[in-house]
Amino acid sequence: MKKLSLFALILPLLGCSHVGENNEVSSKQNNIKQEPPIIEDEKPKNVSSTKEDNRSYNFNDLNSQIINISQEEETAKPFVKKESTLLDVIIIRQTPELRNGCEVTSLAMMLNYAGVQTNKMELYRQIKKDPDPLIKSPKGDFLHWGNPDHGFVGDMTGKQPGYAAFEQPMIDLINKKLPGRAVNLTNQPFEKILEHVSSGFPVVIWTTGDYRLPDRWEAWNHGKEYIKTPLDLHVVLLVGYDEGHVYLNDPLSGKKQVKVNKDQFIASWNALKNRAVSYK
């Protein structure tokens, strides 16, 4: 009991020891003379002030930003091919001036649709030509002639034998009229060609005179090259399609939007090594 009573007397002394110190500090603070607060300059030292942007913005600046945003939105959208398309492209006949000029005449239709002021005769003069003459055997077999990959082979007017030009001379001529805008669709899936037409661009495309499989094959040498190709080759302008058909502007018949069975046409196009050119 004595030990317990002694502990009870000591406990209040431990609990109040800090209170006594705080009272002493408080009394000392009351005796300190209050100095007026020092107010420093509110502007930070050694900090450069921010310059105001005094540039003025006009309507064109804002408009360009809006256009950029809309262009980004357009590029983000996936392309969806239309179920059917039919472009209204002027028809131009290759005859009587260019009996063998289906390539440049089809190209003239396409370029006019693109807004280029030209005609078949101008393109006839400007397209590259392979000048190698036709050499036949005594039996009439073709021995040597030009290469359509290099330029038009033979005489386009029909006064002398003439054949054709393939896609590269046509691409070169398109780029001459529409710098940097030629599109070579050769060896692309036919669906890609239809997508291009769906986007509003007619396509110069290789086929045969009756849009069927070729049946008049010929071969000759050109230097060290051996060229085998159908003589009943023809070039038209693809201007439309629907589920089962394609629509062609034919420079030889002079008919516009000729309706042809799609599968039949694709077979002839495949036989002509899937050649097609356009612009963008």
Automatic annotation (TrEMBL):
It holds the Pfam family Peptidase_C39_2. Keywords: Signal. InterPro entries: Peptidase_C39-like, UCP032442. Residues 1-19 form the signal peptide. Residues 87-251 form the Peptidase C39-like domain. The keyword Signal applies. This is C39 family peptidase. It comes from Neobacillus rhizophilus.
